[in-house]
Specification:
The chain is mainly alpha-helical and 285 residues long. Helices cover 74% and strands 4% of the residues. A hairpin with a 2-residue loop joins strand 1 and strand 2.
């Protein structure tokens, strides 16, 4: 690893250390929140498990940074936003004051996430490092081989990737509160069909996003408009059900991350369309 990092900018090595610290901090804060929570119900267990999955996400981000992948930027942005919301909603309990260890841990995690995003998007050395693309199976003079190939449409490495990554978070952000609502069915069995519909809508959203991103990569305006309508449909389904089944607390805890992902997606789509009209392709964004 020392030999691999020797020729890289110091900022890249610092970023990798910060990413490791962020992954560790995410797990530690979740354990603290679960330890000091006044109640350990089904909803807290689901939210804690989902938040702990962010640790895996940070490890994947480290893998992308280590290989200089261009997709590291949008992945880091979405991870930072959703981690802040996922952890922050667990720090504040439904009743009573939040525990001091949880608040302190969340403060540290918040600073780490902000620093990581700043380095990914504002540091020139890191921008020059994150330029590689995934290897593809190609035919060479010596036969088949995996080689790095830049995408035919350069814009796919910019805000378009951010739009795609943020859209792919819709489905899990819908399924988490839907799974939590299963725990409410014992006292409210009349909502069984609503929960089933909620889960089905979350799964269907993943397929709709996957299909639309295939057209979105071509830079067509109808695909961008369709993606916005998908996001609006997700909000129309998720937010009312979260409020009806999980109350105002669930609406804030589980709806806010989804709204944030939608806003990031809309802004990224707007930037993609603006760049498409001007004919410019972002090198750093």
């Amino acid at each position: 690893m020392v030999l691999v990092d020797a020729g890289r900018p110091a900022a890249v090595r610092v970023l990798k250390v910060l990413l490791v610290l962020t992954a560790v901090a995410t797990a530690v804060v979740e354990v603290l929140n679960y330890r000091y929570a006044p109640e350990h119900g089904f909803g807290l267990a689901v939210r804690t498990g989902w938040a702990l999955l962010r640790t895996v996400g940070w490890l994947i981000l480290i893998w992308h940074v280590n290989r200089g992948r261009a997709a590291a930027r949008p992945l880091g942005l979405i991870l930072a936003i959703t981690t802040i919301f996922a952890v922050g909603r667990l720090v504040v309990p439904q009743t009573g004051a939040p525990p001091l260890p949880g608040l302190a841990g969340f403060g540290v995690l918040l600073v780490l996430c902000l620093v990581v995003v700043a380095l990914l998007y504002r540091h020139e050395g890191i921008a020059g490092h994150l330029v590689r693309h995934p290897k593809k199976l190609v035919v060479t003079g010596k036969g088949l081989a995996f080689e790095e190939r830049a995408p035919r449409r350069p814009a796919v490495t910019g805000w378009l990737i951010t739009a795609r990554v943020s859209a792919f978070t819709y489905s899990p952000l819908m399924l988490v509160p839907a799974l939590i609502a299963i725990g409410e069915l014992a006292d409210r069995p009349q909502w069984v069909l609503a929960v089933v519909f909620w889960i089905a809508a979350g799964i269907a959203t993943s397929y709709a996003v996957l299909l639309n991103t295939a057209f979105l990569a071509r830079g067509k305006r109808p695909a961008r408009v369709t993606m916005v309508w998908i996001g609006l449909g997700v909000l129309v389904i998720d937010l009312p059900l979260a409020w009806l089944l999980l109350g105002v607390d669930g609406l804030v805890r589980d709806g806010a991350p989804l709204v944030a992902a939608f806003l990031v997606n809309v802004y990224a789509l707007w930037r993609t369309g603006k760049l498409g009209r001007t004919g410019k392709v972002p090198a750093a964004t």
